[in-house]
Amino acid sequence: MQIDLRNYQWEVIQPALRGKNIIIWLPTGGGKTRAAVFVARHHLDTKGGKGKVAVLVNKVPLVNQHYENEFEPALKHAYKVAAISGDSELKEQFALAVRKYDVIICTAQILQNALTSTEEEKHVDLTEFSLLVIDECHHTQKDGVYNKIMGHYIEKKHQGAKDLPQILGLTASPGTDGANSLERAKKHILQDPFGDTLKRMMRTIHSYFNVPSISGNLGSQMYEQSVVELEKEGAITFDRKMRNCALHLRKYNDSLMINDTVRMIDALENLALFYSTEEISKHALDQTDRFLLKVFNANKAELHSLTLNPVYENPKLNTLEQILLERFKDSNSRGIIFTKTRQSTHAMLGWIKSSDKLQKAGIKAECLTGAGVNSQTKHMTQQQQNEVIRKFRDGIINLLVATSVAEEGLDIKECNIVIRYGLINNEIAMVQARGRARAENSMYSVVAKKDGKELTREFTNEYRESLMKRAIEAVQEMPEKEYCIKIQELQLESIISRKVKEQKHHAVRMENDPKNVRFFCRNCNEAVCHGSDIQVIEGMHHVNVNPNFKIYYTVSGKINLPRKFEDWEPGGTVSCRKCGQAWGMEMIYKSVSVPSLNIKNFVVELPSMRKTFKQWKAVPCQMEEFNYVEFCSKCLPDLFADFF
């Protein structure tokens, strides 16, 4: 298959054809992937059968997209190409596939797992590749998986390793890492009777637990951060009154923000779902639980009556409706509305379908959200994502309501309308979203409150975009010797910084003996286990192996995850027997059931303090690896009677 390139594509790939490490920076729709395919084929041709290419992506749908649309059609006549993602059968034989295929297209995490694997048959080294293509390479930052892979690369480079792969980065927006000098926008919260009622209820809760003050205006991000800290403090000090009040205030704050984004009814449903779940899954342990339920039940009728009055509805929705009606006068129009959360995408889809005007205009909409499991809203499987995108391409639907999953990478060329609705993101997201509008006579709009923080951020992003372009031009003009010296300095700094961080993390993990670390239910403060009861499966699943632990929990329902796993499957939800607080899930590992715990649901008591953690890796004690045989001998002694 011939690969036809435009003049500007020829220009940007010249250094790569000479074996240089480069980043291709072209606008969304500018043909970065096509240029990368040409470089990959040229690279393999010149290597005489000794080349090997890895194409790394940051989203599962991009694996098949790049395979089916670009790499496989162009290379299949001369080279073997494989697409490997979490759902692929080749995932577990990744190391074998690397040796067998000429081109591997995979999610970056799969390669990272192979690079760090201690099992010989699963381990892969970077030197096994001769070319590494990194799609959407602007994600190579902080603790992202791209950055970890490049950490391996530069460490090997400075150790003098030979045969390291050539690097080809692809991006539409390198970013500025947040650099700006614009004044912060003033906060502006929408005032309305529905919101005022929610705030009155929140103040009633404030008075009940007599908190001196909570930073931030009601309905703001700062307020949410404040009540999150209060909830932590209440959990750590075993103050259930403080903890539960803070937990409920956060839900009210969520509803205020939903009310500011979509409809009153969406905000009310958010609260109603929370309280129905509270009543069903948790037991009313004390006066605080009963008081909080009473506050909601006493006001829900008033809130519901307000949702029926269109006079108080969100004015931004009227603006959005006018934009859509104007743009969809053309029956061939197709658009994307970007909004912040999965919750808001589903709420906005409900609003679109309930609008007679939008339905008469021929608008056929569906949601497009991420595949990751989320406790707030239902996830989409990869198959469901692909089906929605197919319908959009085929014209069966003409409007996507999407989260950031559609901002970059996904091949959605037919768009001529892009709307960012109440979003606060950086300049990279702005450039990526704007790049979705590729069709003729395209339009890019931002819907936000006048003088609000969303518009201020959009102006900031425009400034950062110009700053980004100037920075790239300045780097391109640097003398080659100066450029090489600076790159080497930055790489050495990165290696040292990562090593120091790893040493500190290891030292912290060794601080405490697991026997001296205790875990308490975050909701009812029941002491339930020690760190020595916890073991780790596959480096990530923290399970309790103490047979006596079962007296503290119940198992209910059935958890469904978006994909299958080699050695285990999910069972039901594991919850505190005393209060009903969810703790994690039942993990059926090699046919044996073991409770897998989520650290967020516990308070950890260390010898020197009590603390909450978001991730297990932050807990300052080292848990042992799971011993399957030992666990079975303790928990299923009858099974082992014939062996001992």
Would you mind describing this structure in some detail?
With 644 residues, this protein is an alpha/beta fold. The chain has 4 domains: 7-171, Rossmann fold, CATH 3.40.50; 193-312, Up-down Bundle (phosphoenolpyruvate carboxylase, domain 3); 315-473, P-loop containing nucleotide triphosphate hydrolases (Rossmann fold, 3-Layer(aba) Sandwich), CATH 3.40.50.300; 514-640, Beta Complex (Metal Binding Protein, Guanine Nucleotide Exchange Factor, Chain A). The chain has 19 helices and 22 strands. Helix 7 packs antiparallel against helix 11, helix 8 (221-236) packs antiparallel against helix 9 and helix 9 packs antiparallel against helix 10.
What key attributes describe this structure?
5-stranded parallel beta sheet; 644 residues; alpha/beta; Rossmann fold; 16% strand; 6-stranded parallel beta sheet; 19 helices; phosphoenolpyruvate carboxylase, domain 3
Largest sheet: 6 strands, parallel
Count of domain modules:
4
What sort of overall outline do the alpha carbons produce when their principal axes are compared?
Answer: globular
What would CATH call the homologous superfamily of the largest domain? P-loop containing nucleotide triphosphate hydrolases
Mean pLDDT: 82
- Straight-line distance between termini: 65 Å
The helical percent reads 40-55%
What is the count of helical runs?
A: 19
Q: Which residues sit in consecutive blocks of at least 5 with pLDDT less than 50?
A: 176-191, 424-439
Instruction: Name the CATH architecture of the largest domain.
Output: 3-Layer(aba) Sandwich
Write down the CATH class of the largest domain: Alpha Beta
**Fraction in beta strands:** 15-25%
Q: Whole-number radius of gyration?
A: 27 Å
> Which class do the helix and strand fractions yield?
alpha/beta
Annotated CATH topology of the largest domain: Rossmann fold
Tally of strands: 22
Query: How are the strands ordered across the major sheet?
Result: 1-6-5-2-4-3
